[in-house]
Amino acid sequence: MRVLIVDDERLARQRVRRLVQSEADVEVVGEAESGHEAVALIRELRPDLVCLDVQMPGLDGFGVLRELDGGHVPMVLFVTAYDEHAQRAFDVHAVDYVLKPVDEDRFRAAFDKARKQRANAVAAVRLGELLETVRRLAGGSAAMAEARGDGSGGALPGELATENANANANANANANGGGSAGGRFASRILVKQDGRMFFVKTAEIDWIEADRNYVRLHVGKTAHTIRERIGHLEETLDPRLFARIHRSTIVNLNRVREMQQWFSGDYVVILEDGTRLRLSRHYRDRVEKQVGV
User: Fold this and answer.
1) According to the 3-state scheme, what is the secondary structure of the chain?
2) CA 278, CA 207: separation in Å to the nearest integer?
3) CA 122 to CA 128: how far, in whole Å?
4) How far is 80 from 203, CA to CA, in rounded Å?
5) Region of residue 129 (left: phi > 0; alpha: psi -120 to 50; beta: else)
6) Which of 44, 172, 215, 291 could pair covalently with 130 via S-S, beta carbons 3.0-4.6 A apart?
7) What is the spatial distance between Cα 148 and Cα 129, in angstroms, rounded to a whole number?
8) Which residue has the higher pLDDT, 168 or 76?
9) Which stretch, 82-91, 158-167, 281-290, has highest mean pLDDT?
10) Res 240: pLDDT
């Protein structure tokens, strides 16, 4: 982990440096004695963590973060002699808030938080890259299908929909929960609503939400409710296109725009339309393996 130390007091910087250097796999990349110098070094060195004093002449610690808005913002561990800024520190998502004189055990506990947060952030980036790879692969398959003119839309190889003698079998399977004939995954799901019946193509579903014995299929601005358990529905969907990210949520990987880390260890999955969904820690490793195959 690459660390920058920021404090206008030389003795305070030396104390923090000794504590940081006692940690394994840590490099102190620099020191700054003012807020303006800190901004310049953060932009130049791009550290993983900044041990940042709050009260400094000219530009205080919160001012440093404001100056970084829109650029590289590292994790922040506030080290200060004043506790009245604690709530404000957590409002800007600081890793922790350590009071001077710095207690060694308290500092180590705060530094451990930073390690865990960085590990989670790295995992989130890796998962985001894997999701982007899946999206590119799916997009390439759709382009090839369109070029062939086979009307398969965005289907991946091995799951092309047919309109021959298997059509009735597929329709019946979908009506019973989505399983498809011949071992293929569901290409459409039967919806019964307002006295009518119609099919929803699975490729058009943005995400799926569980509500006890029902699920809601979110398709654009429309939501269709069917009587089905999310666990059973999950088994019928192609895992190359759909991932369960929470006990009550399945997402279409082609709709994922980005991921953001939550400080609880969970993540926020943001869809192309701005919908924000929670990726829980319980499902993170499972999703990562799923899309990394």
Assistant:
1) CEEEEECCCHHHHHHHHHHHHCCCCCEEEEEECCHHHHHHHHHHHCCCEEEECCCCCCCCHHHHHHHCCCCCCCEEEEEECCCCCHHHHHHCCCCEEEECCCCHHHHHHHHHHHHHHHHHHHHHHHHHHHHHHHHHHHHHHHHHHHHHCCCCCCCCCCCCCCCCCCHHHHHHHHHCCCCCHHHCCCCEEEEEECCEEEEEEHHHCCEEEEECCEEEEEECCEEEEEECCHHHHHHHCCCCCEEEEECCEEEEHHHEEEEEECCCCCEEEEECCCCEEEECHHHHHHHHHHHHC
2) 12
3) 10
4) 53
5) alpha
6) 291
7) 29
8) 76
9) 281-290
10) 86
Q: Are 152 and 160 in contact (CB under 8 A)?
A: yes
Domains of the chain, earliest start first: 2-102 (3.40.50.2300), 133-292 (2.40.50.1020)
**Cis omega (within 30 of 0) on the bond before 101?**
yes
Tell me the pLDDT tens digit for each residue of 107-125. 999 999 888 887 766 655 5
Rounded to the nearest 10 degrees, how much is the dihedral formed by the CA atoms of 56, 58, 61, 62?
A: 140
